[in-house]
Amino acid sequence: MLTRSFAPIWLAAAAVAHAIAQPIVIKTTTLFDGRGHVLRNRQITIENGRITRIAAAQGKPTIDLSGLTVMPGWIDTHIHPTWFFNKDDRLELDGPGAKSTPQQAALHAEANLYATLMGGFTTVQSVGAALDGDLRDLIARDSIPGPRLLTSLAQITEKSGDPEQIRALVDKLKADGADVIKLFATASIRDGGKMTMTADQIDATCGEARKVGLRAMVHAHASEGARAAIMAGCTAIEHGTFLDDATLELMAARGVYFDPNFLVLHNYLDNKAKFLGIGNYNEPGFAYMEKALPLVADVLRRARKAHVKVVLGTDAVAGAHGRNAEEFIYRVRDGGDSPMDALLSGTSVAAESLGMADRIGSLAEGKEADIVAVDGNPLDDIASVRRVVFVMKHGRVYKDALPF
Questions:
Q1: pLDDT (tens digit, 0 to 9) for every residue of the chain, 404 residues total?
Q2: CA-CA distance, 147 to 145, in Å (whole number)?
Q3: SS3 content of the chain, % helix, strand, coil (to 5)
Q4: 8 A C-beta contact, residue 214 and residue 180
Q5: Most buried of the four, 88, 149, 244, 261, by CB within 10 Å?
Q6: Distance of CA 145 to the CA centre of its chain
Q7: Which DSSP symbol is given to 174?
Q8: CA 39 to centroid of chain Cα atoms
Q9: Residues with Cβ < 8 Å from 352, sequence gap 6 or more?
Q10: Cα separation of 133 and 151, whole Å?
Q11: Are the CB atoms for 151 and 132 separated by under 8 Å?
């Protein structure tokens, strides 16, 4: 039974604040703690948005999640919430030729973030758009509903200037409030994934990011660009479709996180008509993406064998928002992950990669009360991640579709 006073964010602010101030007790029968343990018949006590106690169930709970699998709120380390399909059902991007107004674009982005929250993801990282900063701050102030949002605000590419100009750009992004630096060391998979930034540009980006205290995550499909980024001190490699074993071993030795992506490729192929003819979304590009799927499965298997720290990121673009949990399924079904490894990649390992392991990614005393419950047990059937029936972020219930 769920007491309805702990209701979604759109209730009156005073009522919501009162609800959060009261202790909440959640009863569970199956609890995955996000750190590799499954606990039975536990109660979670929450005060002021944080977990204060996890103990054997006793007494009458505020919220009864018996019969469900209860987990930490999921984390997606790579999304693009400002990408959407416009009124013509075509991809819309910022810039010349946009058919939507800035207001419409902002509403689409908020809808994408809301769908992601409803899908069980309570923290996401966007890499990145200028609009993200406002979205992040509005969500943090509880003005709009959405997952906790981190952002790079922009991307750095081979066109961003010489090393001195790139260092200045990193400094500006830091001053503007970026949470992370995103750089493109290689071309898109649709253009073959070859190295595009010079080693000096990559060194300047990652070195300056480290100097100002920011993580640096790198779009890199091929080993040459990825290796240059790893040697420069970058903290995460995205995609990595063509990485060789030596590069994976270097990542493991240096503690660099890895984020291979299945959902984004499937989403492009499933929505081909909505992308085709825009930029490099052409027939050769789609052929590259189709050929990439078995390569992603292979590199994930090899990364696990090399003991690389794998995180869950979807690269969610238009059409994928709210379906982020499909990445768990693809990684198990096609990439050979165990359900436990897949779930860890989207909980404690992802939190560690964001530098937020002390706050999120696991259910333990002192952590944020970010909780998702699914109908079924994803450790037995990974497809049950599609059946999210309960979402709480910082002690506030955003979704209650309990089947009883």
A1: 443 333 444 343 434 444 456 899 999 999 999 999 999 999 999 999 999 999 998 889 999 999 999 999 999 999 999 999 999 999 997 666 788 999 999 999 999 999 999 999 999 999 989 999 999 999 999 999 999 999 999 999 999 999 999 999 999 999 999 999 999 999 999 988 899 999 999 999 999 999 999 999 999 999 999 999 999 999 999 999 999 999 999 999 999 999 999 999 999 999 999 999 998 999 999 999 999 999 999 999 999 999 999 999 999 999 999 999 999 999 999 999 999 999 999 999 999 999 999 999 999 999 999 999 999 999 999 999 999 999 999 999 999 987 66
A2: 7
A3: 35, 25, 40
A4: yes
A5: 261
A6: 17
A7: H
A8: 25
A9: 309, 361
A10: 7
A11: yes
In degrees rounded to 5, what are phi and psi of residue 238? -100, 140
38 φ, ψ (degrees, to nearest 5): -115, 120
Instruction: Report, in angstroms and rounded to the nearest whole number, the Rg of the chain calculated over CA atoms.
Output: 21
The residue written with tokens 């991007």 in the block is: 93
CA distance 264 to 327: 9
| Number of other residues whose CB lies within 10 A of the CB of residue 259 | 26
Handedness of CA 402, 148, 15, 25 (dihedral sign): positive
Kind plus residue range of the DSSP H or E element containing 374: strand 371-374
Length reported for the chain = 404
The number of CA neighbours under 13 Å toward the Cβ of 179 is 21
Look at residue 230 and give its three-state secondary structure.
Answer: helix
| Spatial distance between the Cα atoms of 265 and 381, rounded to a whole number of angstroms | 23
DSSP 235-249: -EEEEEEE--HHHHH
Which of 49, 28, 31 has the alpha carbon at shortest distance from 122? 49
